[in-house]
Amino acid sequence: MASGVDLMRLGVAPTPMVASVAARRDAIGFVISASHNPYFDNGIKIFGLGGTKLSVEREAQIAQRLDEILSASATPVSCVLPDVSEQAEEEYVVALQGALEGRDLRGLHLVVDAAHGAGSALAGRIFEGLGARVDVMNHRPDGKNINASCGATDPTGLAAMVVRNGADLGLALDGDADRLIAVDERGHIVDGDHIIALCAKDLMARGRLAHQTVVVTVMTNLGFHQAMSAAQINVVQTPVGDRSVLEAMDEGGFSLGGEQSGHVIFREQATTGDGLLTGLMLADLMVRESGQSTGAQALVPFSELAAAAMTSLPQVLINVRLPVVPERFHEELAAEIAGVESRLADGGRLLIRASGTEPMVRVMVEAPTMALATAQAQLLADVISSRYNG
Q: Which of 22, 229, 263, 385 could form a disulfide with 259 if both were Cys (CB 3.0 to 4.6 A apart)?
């Protein structure tokens, strides 16, 4: 403010709400959040003008400049930020509910796990405002309980409550509410791959899937690719990370993309992944598929919808921690990698990559059976460990 910048305070707000406000006001957005991590992992996320994600290069420039500023002596400036949280929240709620284009969620019973996070005060209000019956859990943040054995990173409590309460659908947000994992009426977890498959087929059927294409990452299950091929939907694959997904979506003009972890981007409605928006889209899909608008009395079970969307191949992920990850480990392991791929043939997939944050190599294998996937992943993990940890 001392430099002439206009600032507005949004209070406690989901990350996608900040992006949404920035988009409407052509502003820059700042969020202090632990995202899907424990509270002590708080960091700063910055949205560029219009609520868009910054490039890795621009974030690095900002971090460097911040280090320079903090290393110099500075006089603190006292200021009071205008609080626009109530107005911004109302605008966000109206925008989310408007995504249903006048439809409602009457007849649907939901359980929403807010992960003791930024969506705690909004989750029930948004769905109840559309006529759904909503039970909200883990919605009392105390500053330290965010994501603690709850939410999208641990939906086991949600699964139990869905079954106990006889609900039709469970929705688990993460701490900053930008990702979502679902639970069916039997308490079975439905991951991001299934959610994206459901939405892709639905949008395709309604002529709303831009260029008949969906964008996913290399971690997406092979079963997803098989389902999209059968539905004549094109798939664009990117490196891990919702930033990579969003970049590919904007470059190709695509309308849907996301990750297995539950980041789902509906580009016509948002500039980033939004767990509450994803939950609304799933709930709306379920009501429409059940023909509630024509007077049907019973909802199609969400388990049936998820099963029809795709069938996941058994997937095994083993992390091999190393002192240092060799730069050319792919080349040095070429023979062993070729052997695993040969045994998997066309019925499976191998992905081996270095972690972007820790000194480890991640080995992921998908195969027609869990036994084959486990055996091949362990074989390669043992080779890596013995060769580079010896």
A: 263
Residue 372 CA to residue 8 CA, distance in Å, equals 55
Structural domain includes residue 67: yes
Please tell me whether residues 167 and 185 are part of one structural domain.
Answer: yes
Shared domain for 53 and 186, answered yes or no, is no
Catalytic residue among 3, 20, 33, 35: 35
Q: What is the pLDDT along the chain (390 residues), one digit of tens a residue?
A: 777 888 899 999 999 999 999 999 999 999 999 888 899 988 899 999 989 989 889 999 999 998 888 888 667 777 788 888 899 999 999 999 999 999 999 999 999 999 999 999 999 999 999 999 999 999 999 989 999 999 999 999 999 999 999 999 999 999 999 999 999 999 999 999 999 999 999 999 999 999 999 999 998 999 999 999 999 999 999 998 888 999 999 999 999 999 999 999 999 999 999 999 999 999 999 999 987 444 445 889 999 999 999 999 999 999 999 998 888 899 999 999 999 999 998 889 999 998 877 889 999 999 999 999 999 999 999 999 999 986
Q: Could you confirm whether 35 is annotated as catalytic?
A: yes
Q: What 3-state DSSP class applies to 326?
A: coil
Contact (Cβ atoms closer than 8 angstroms) between residue 34 and residue 109: no
Please state, in angstroms and rounded to a whole number, the distance separating the CA atoms of residues 92 and 21.
7
Range of the domain at 325: 315-389
